[in-house]
Design goal:
It is an enzyme of class 3 (hydrolase). Residues 63-205 form the PPPDE domain. Residues 1-50 are annotated as: Disordered. With 224 residues, the protein is α+β, with helices and mostly antiparallel strands. The chain has helices at 10-20, 76-84, 137-148, 164-176, 182-185, 187-192, 195-205, and strands spanning 63-71, 93-99, 102-107, 110-114, 126-133, 215-216. It is elongated.
Length: 224
């Protein structure tokens, strides 16, 4: 080192290492210092070198959650509802939840799953972004097992009062705290509020809907 030059201070060298080795970002966005060099026995940390920072928690992984919306009438409800019901309905809605790379839905055989768009219904008519969830796949599958043994057994299915949209709404709130759109959940009440809906209710109550192509969810491995 030439005379007159000043040796770089330890904090300056530390700052360079922090930048070079990517230590500047942790889960909370704070700066984490590298470990202090070893000091002689009985001595404290070297002067000017910050002590080791406490280990930071791993950042939470967020998983996207989508709602797939299908019109089971394939456009017929939009065309015929004014004549039959005296009011406009845009569709007869079936919904499912997409999370952890799979599609989950409820029908007359209980909770089922498949690859996104994997039922015979094909691709959805629309997709609603419900946000993100911190719920891991393991915890989510345990939650589904609990639902499948209680609220959402196959024999509990009812076209108007306990259907696929009831399931989607329940699961959406568990994952994200958000409900699915009200135009979907309000549809049964809209139909039953019409004379035609009331007249057909005994028949409609007997209808069991189970989109083909999914695998019935099981407790042991997620799918059967």
């Amino acid at each position: 080192m030439r005379k007159g030059s000043v040796a770089p201070s330890v904090p300056s060298v530390t700052s360079q290492l922090v930048s070079q080795r990517g230590w500047d970002r942790t889960g909370s966005g704070a700066v984490a210092a590298p470990p202090s060099p070893p000091s002689p026995s009985g001595a404290g940390p070297a002067a000017g070198v910050p002590p080791c920072a406490a280990p930071m928690e791993e950042p939470l992984v967020l998983h996207p959650v989508k709602l797939y919306v299908y019109d089971l009438s394939k456009g017929m409800a939009r065309r015929l509802s004014p004549l039959m019901l005296g009011k406009q309905l845009d569709g007869i809605w079936h919904t499912s939840i997409i999370v952890h790379k799979d599609e989950f839905f409820y029908g007359s055989e209980g909770i089922s799953s498949c690859a996104p768009g994997g039922t015979l219904l094909g691709p959805p008519d629309s997709v609603v972004d419900l946000g993100n969830t911190e719920v891991t796949e393991e915890i989510f599958l345990e939650y589904l097992s609990s639902l499948g043994e209680s609220m959402f057994r196959g024999e509990s299915y009812n076209l108007f009062e306990h259907n696929c949209n009831t399931f989607s709404n329940e699961v959406a709130q568990f994952l994200t705290g958000r409900k699915i759109p009200s135009y979907i959940t309000d549809l049964p009440a809209e139909v039953l509020a019409t004379p035609f809906g009331q007249a057909l209710r005994p028949l409609l109550d007997s209808i069991q809907i189970q989109p083909p192509g999914g695998n019935t969810f099981s407790r042991h491995n997620g799918q059967s």
